[in-house]
Design a protein that fits this description.
two-stranded antiparallel ribbon; 4 helices; mainly alpha
């Protein structure tokens, strides 16, 4: 069963996050959205017509996201696990810096 959490996806989509591709924050004409990772060997990330678990979502600009899917190549396939692990590390650090009582409120998921 795939994990789904709209609050988590909304948190990823906040413009204070940086795009994993270009490293810039979002702005009015190029918002940050949650990209569900695809095609990472060894991980069950969905198949044709299905999305990966929300656990495997990372922040991307709308334009970078469109380009990613339009021009998906071997380089992006190699870089995507790095982007995922880098963002997952950020999430874990945020979790560890919060007291259990304040965690969900601290990252806006209360």
């Amino acid at each position: 069963m795939r994990y789904r959490n709209k609050k988590y996806l909304n948190w990823i989509s906040q413009n204070e996050h940086t795009c994993v591709i270009c490293g810039e924050q979002g702005w009015d004409d190029n918002q940050i959205i949650a990209h569900h990772c695809i095609s990472i060997p060894g991980l069950n990330l969905g198949g044709m017509g299905t999305k990966a678990s929300d656990t495997f979502a990372i922040p991307m600009h709308v334009i970078c996201h469109s380009d990613f899917h339009t021009h998906f190549d071997a380089q992006k396939k190699e870089e995507q696990p790095i982007w995922l692990m880098t963002f997952q590390e950020k999430v874990v650090r945020l979790i560890c810096e919060q007291t259990p009582k304040n965690f969900w409120t601290g990252i806006g998921l209360d």
